[in-house]
Design goal:
Number of helices: 13
CATH architecture of the largest domain: 3-Layer(aba) Sandwich
Largest sheet: 7 strands, mixed
Helix content: 25-40%
Length: 284
């Protein structure tokens, strides 16, 4: 790990869970920093407050949710948000089960669905953006908290359709095909540019770390956070995420310096607003 090369005496312990699971540990005083693929929910912030845990919210990169199919699928190149909603809404369960159920001119072949598990921030964001209500969807799909497993399953299923983070599509791009999404302004394919400039809507999103505020008094933890933000673009690219604009990292560093507590997202994602604009809401 890059930071440990600079501070070999600092022990870092890493754990893996979905965003929701991470917030549970964070608000239970089990960890000092948690990563998140969505903003903290109001209920989660309330849990932290009840435990007297204050936090500093730091956006660190952009990501997009890619909707992907097997490369042998030659009938779909773009889906509208309404079509995605029809596929994933609860009413579709055990009813919309073949490709021809979505468009009659498509093959009468099974539609196998893959996606994030319910403990995942990816699931929360996808259902909010597509179905219209966070955490609500059909249940008859192959769910996993591990995007690698979803990608591997889709790479072996010619009838599959699924969603996961753009970075995993980049890694599996030769074995999968990403669909363009029409959010109302025409079909836009996921790419580093379309995610960063906001044209890939509504499936572009920021990702975060949340840091316990009083833990910033610890020199080693503060050094880690400062290193993280100072090297944000390079670290984002290494993780196959999309860097924020430079000013966003400057504003995030100011939030750390001034110990600006809480979330600027009011308990949910803000579509169509830049990270810089949101950070300046509570900036200097």
């Amino acid at each position: 790990m890059a930071f440990q090369q600079l501070a070999p005496g600092v022990e870092l312990r890493l754990g893996v869970s979905g965003t929701g699971g991470g917030f549970k540990k964070f608000c239970a005083d089990e960890i000092l920093i948690t990563g998140a693929s969505r903003p903290i929910k109001r209920s989660e912030a309330d849990s932290c407050a009840a435990a007297a845990i204050s936090f500093v919210e730091l956006p660190i990169a952009y990501d997009g949710l890619s909707v992907v199919v097997h490369p042998s699928n030659d009938w779909v190149t773009c889906l509208t948000i309404d079509e995605l909603r029809r596929i994933w809404e609860p009413a579709a369960e055990a009813r919309l089960v073949s490709w021809s159920d979505l468009r009659p001119d498509w093959p009468d072949q099974p539609l196998h669905l893959y996606g994030a598990g319910t403990d995942s921030g990816t699931y929360d964001y996808f259902t909010a953006a597509v179905v219209g209500t966070e955490g609500v969807s059909r249940r008859d799909y192959m769910a996993s908290e591990d995007d690698y497993l979803i990608a591997q399953d889709l790479a072996e299923d010619p009838d599959g359709l699924g969603f996961f983070g753009y970075s995993y599509y980049v890694e599996y791009g030769e074995r999968l095909r990403a669909l363009a999404i029409d959010g109302g302004a025409g079909c836009v394919a996921p790419s580093a540019q379309s995610i960063a400039d906001g044209s890939y809507q509504p499936l572009a999103r920021p990702i975060f770390i949340y840091v316990r505020a009083d833990a910033l008094d610890r020199p080693e933890l503060r050094a880690f956070v400062d290193f993280y933000l100072a090297n944000g673009p390079a670290l984002a690219q290494r993780a196959r995420a999309i860097p924020l604009p430079p000013r966003a990292y400057t504003l995030a560093a100011q939030r750390v310096e001034q110990r600006i507590i809480g979330s600027v997202f009011a308990g949910g994602a803000q579509v169509g607003v830049s990270i810089e604009q949101l950070l300046e809401l509570e900036g200097p």
